[in-house]
Write a structure and sequence with these properties.
- The structure is a homodimer.
- With about 200 residues, chain A is an all-alpha fold.
- Chain A has two domains: about 50 residues, Arc Repressor Mutant, subunit A, CATH 1.10.10; about 130 residues, Tetracycline Repressor, domain 2, CATH 1.10.357.10.
- In chain A, helix 1 packs across helix 2, helix 3 packs parallel to helix 6 and helix 6 crosses helix 7.
- Chain A is elongated.
- The N terminus of chain A is likely disordered.
- Chains A and B meet through helix 5, helix 7 and helix 8 of A and helix 5, helix 7 and helix 8 of B.
- Chain B binds a DNA duplex (19 and 19 nucleotides) through helix 2.
Chain lengths: ~200, ~200
DNA sequence: ACCTGAACACCGTTCAAGT
DNA sequence: ACCTGAACACCGTTCAAGT
């Protein structure tokens, strides 16, 4: 009766993605199996193949959704401030918080083996993210516009995030990692101002 | 006749690890299966359990060996120079080169799910690595000895490595990534000198 | 001690069949 | 169109049995 258990209307795809996301968040990326996803969506182990060519194809869809959500989250976080340093800090915190809120999803987003070029929406979200970061860094007025400064900032934030998620740093709490992120941004911008890149 | 095909002498364990490393390096971490490892070592699918409690246990051994090798490689790279900046740069290049030389192994070393505390050799190599990095950074005379400077440097190098391996940066060649690493180190040390951490 | 073969409960994927 | 059940070739792991 209720439309949610009738997949002939085209909502199985999103139900599968939702189940997959839940599985990943709760049990980690290695617990993500097509058969379990199908089970949770209440369909046969085979039904997912109507919507995804393969497990990798579902993972790619999951990664695309995650990247789009991360981008939206960063946009949202930077929207309220006008001061360039504050905006960059807000973006970095959004990045870190996104990763901490669902570590396995962060892994799926970044480390999946699928061919990215085969997923235009993924590439689009990636391109937009890099562009946004470039703008945020350029607004600091710390370097000529070669893009290297943006990569340095991104790598620092990403490194702190990865090492934080893996419990490699002495402080692993959200607060401590945000503080480390702030230090990284301050140090990098100070360094870029003092010693502009070639 | 030849001792290599007689595992009653205690060399099966290392033969298994060697097969596992080869598998990981050639086909990626997801191709690492206990059964295939056994096949390559020429034993039944069950023989590995004489030497490893589980697949995770073998992965932990692999990760430990990798970390020890990385540490040795960094020690070796820094041994020839005396200038602090040169030594730090050599260490960073060794880190990057280690990752690029076998990306899946780098992943196993950093992202495996095993309980690290259950593997003292792993913890020892980790502790020694952090200590070494701390010394290298302290020699730059850029910060008070809180360890934060070391974490910032490590995160930057690690971030460049991860993003480079994942083809996220515009330049992905060894040369380009080493150059980006050099920029990161120069920028961070300049920033730390200009604006010491609280 | 060290190794083997059979067995169990899983996978991803394919295929013929049902509505 | 969308879904199902049977089947295939894999996994990791356990167990009884062989030397």
């Amino acid at each position: 009766m209720i439309s949610v258990d009738r997949y002939h209307h085209g909502n199985l795809r999103s139900a599968l993605l939702q189940a997959a996301l839940h599985l990943v968040g709760k049990f980690g990326a290695e617990a993500l199996t097509l058969r379990e996803v199908a089970r949770r969506a209440g369909v046969s182990h085979n039904a997912p193949y109507r919507h995804f060519k393969s497990k990798e194809d579902l993972v790619a869809a999951l990664a695309t959704e995650a990247l789009e959500e991360l981008l939206a989250s960063i946009r949202n976080a930077t929207a309220t401030a006008t001061d360039p340093a504050t905006r960059l800090r807000a973006a970095a915190h959004a990045y870190l918080d996104f990763a901490l809120s669902n570590p396995p999803r962060f892994g799926i987003m970044f480390r999946s083996a699928f061919d990215r070029d085969a997923y235009p929406a993924y590439v689009a979200a990636y391109t937009d993210s890099v562009t946004l970061l470039g703008e945020l860094v350029r607004a600091q007025e710390v370097a000529t516009d070669t893009g290297v400064a943006g990569e340095l900032v991104w790598a620092s934030i990403h490194g702190i995030t990865e090492l934080g998620l893996g419990k490699w740093l002495r402080g692993g709490s959200r607060k401590e990692l945000e503080s480390l992120t702030d230090s990284a941004l301050e140090t990098l911008t100070a360094g870029l101002r003092k010693q502009p890149l070639a």
